[in-house]
């Protein structure tokens, strides 16, 4: 690749007078644009011929990394393969070309899809009713918490304004609670990574009359199944609260158990994680919310439409294509893949919590800390070998967290290749640590100053700055 042509910004390829189009003379009457709408000077747009533009963006697109072109073991996010059949269904003109303001009589097919999907989600989760309106997981969390709050207000139990959240929870949990006007009561974890039931009991004893409910993710953020859920659910229910299930980690539960059977009253499902539509780049997503019987009366009006319909279509196609026979294999296979990687690498990477994990697990960096090689270095080096890095420095329970989630789709050959590279990086850390600390070496851009980029991002092209350089 010629970096002179394709490694720069499109502005830097601009040559005055170049054109990439030829339009015929317009046939409209002359119209003078009001002065208040006119620019004081011409917009600083790049001037390039069509071939340069096409090559520029085509070559840049090759730098995108996704599930379709490589292994993407991003912990907590379930970046699973998006089957082509799901894309084909979502692209059907009868669905694709719908407008949300069409008369209801013209969208009977779309309404039937939504109704069927709600019923399928009920069967898969053990809930009794679903709303598809939330646009994302965090939006679903907020919706579910509004259901919880509406339930208590309907009983004139206005003092219940506090929600229990484990210290290992996703950051969206306390954020959603705050937006909903609820106060967070943090519940500690045990050394084995699961909820400290004794700490929970002490909090409930002290705040009994003010607890609205408890939010839990299961398996939790460490990929561990919370075995004390029946006891936890009884404690919360006995004090008058509701149990909320964060569906971010639902993937390993498919075919194994259902949140609605475990004592949860409200939940959201990140269908863009568990049921197709990988969500890299910030979207799109959808976060349907399910409730046990009686709570559907408190569904809030969070949207006038049925969420992101194209995402819901992919979800529907995914569930139907697997069917009730094969969807049962999702959870067990995701669990098998994660445990296989964990066991093959735990001699070289520090495993802070032993035992069976579910769909994901967390290393606390390299086992040998004497090299000075950090989790960041390992992640950057993985890019040189063609792998997207796992989630790093989350959860916050460990200093050098390296969170790996392979999903059920990956073959043993792919997983073995990843394991081989991870072992090679551990060896490199001992023999040539400086090379890791300077990685990546084979990407279009080397290691950037993350702090500088976060605090002082340059988000616009500055022509004068370029000219001066």
CATH homology-level superfamily of the largest domain = Type I PLP-dependent aspartate aminotransferase-like (Major domain)
Number of strands: 10
Q: Which class best fits the helix and strand makeup?
A: alpha/beta
Q: Architecture of the largest domain, CATH level 2?
A: 3-Layer(aba) Sandwich
Amount of helix: 25-40%
Beta-strand portion reads 5-15%
From N to C, what is the helix and strand string?
Answer: HHHHHEHEHEHEHEEHEHHEHEEHHHH
What is the CATH third-level topology name of the largest domain? Aspartate Aminotransferase, domain 2
Uncertain stretches: 1-6
Dominant shape: globular
- Biggest sheet strand line-up: 1-7-6-5-4-2-3
Q: Mean of the pLDDT scores? A: 93
Tell me the number of helical segments per DSSP (H or I, 4 or more residues long).
17
Instruction: Name the CATH class of the largest domain.
Output: Alpha Beta
Largest β sheet strand count, sense and barrel closure: 7 strands, mixed
Q: CA-to-CA gap between the ends? A: 23 Å
- Radius of gyration, Cα only, in angstroms? 26 Å
The domain tally reads: 3
């Amino acid at each position: 690749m010629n970096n002179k042509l394709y490694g720069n910004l499109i502005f830097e390829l601009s040559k005055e007078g170049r054109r990439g189009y030829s339009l015929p003379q317009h046939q409209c009457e002359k119209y003078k644009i009001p002065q208040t709408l006119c620019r004081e000077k011409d917009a600083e747009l790049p001037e390039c011929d069509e071939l340069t533009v096409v090559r520029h963006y085509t070559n840049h697109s090759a730098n995108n990394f996704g599930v379709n072109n490589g292994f993407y073991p991003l912990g907590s996010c379930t970046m699973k393969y998006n089957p082509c059949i799901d894309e084909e269904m979502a692209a059907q003109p009868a669905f694709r070309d719908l407008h949300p303001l069409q008369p209801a009589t013209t969208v009977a097919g779309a309404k039937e899809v939504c109704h069927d999907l709600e019923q399928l989600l009920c069967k898969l989760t053990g809930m009794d009713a679903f709303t598809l309106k939330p646009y994302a997981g965090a939006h679903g969390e907020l919706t579910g918490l509004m259901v919880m709050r509406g339930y208590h207000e309907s009983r004139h139990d206005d003092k219940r304004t506090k929600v229990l959240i484990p210290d290992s929870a996703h950051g969206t949990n306390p954020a959603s609670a705050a937006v909903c006007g609820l106060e967070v009561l943090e519940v500690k974890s045990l050394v084995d990574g699961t909820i400290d039931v004794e700490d929970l009991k002490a909090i409930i004893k002290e705040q009994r009359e003010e607890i609205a409910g408890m939010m839990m993710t299961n398996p939790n953020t460490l990929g561990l199944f919370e075995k004390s859920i029946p006891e936890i659910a009884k404690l919360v229910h006995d004090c008058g609260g509701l149990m909320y299930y964060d569906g971010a980690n639902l993937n390993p539960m498919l075919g194994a158990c259902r949140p609605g059977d475990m004592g949860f009253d409200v939940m959201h499902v990140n269908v863009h994680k568990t049921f197709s539509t990988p969500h890299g780049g910030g979207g799109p997503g959808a976060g349907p919310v399910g409730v046990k019987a009686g709570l559907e009366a408190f569904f809030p009006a969070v949207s006038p439409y049925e969420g992101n319909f194209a995402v819901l279509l992919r979800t529907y196609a995914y569930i139907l294509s697997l069917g009730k026979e094969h969807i049962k294999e999702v959870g067990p296979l995701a669990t098998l893949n994660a445990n296989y990687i964990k066991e093959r690498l735990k001699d070289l990477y520090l495993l802070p919590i032993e035992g069976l994990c579910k769909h994901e697990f967390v290393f606390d960096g390299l086992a040998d800390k004497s090299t000075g090689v950090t989790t960041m270095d390992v992640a950057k080096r993985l890019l040189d070998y063609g792998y997207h890095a796992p989630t790093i420095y989350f959860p916050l329970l460990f200093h050098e967290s390296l969170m790996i989630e392979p999903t059920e789709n990956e073959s043993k050959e792919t997983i073995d290749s990843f394991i081989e590279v991870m072992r090679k990086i551990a060896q490199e850390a001992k023999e040539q640590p400086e090379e890791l600390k300077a990685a990546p070496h084979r990407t279009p851009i080397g290691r950037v100053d993350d702090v500088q980029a976060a605090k002082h991002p340059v988000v616009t092209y500055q022509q004068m700055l370029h000219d001066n350089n």
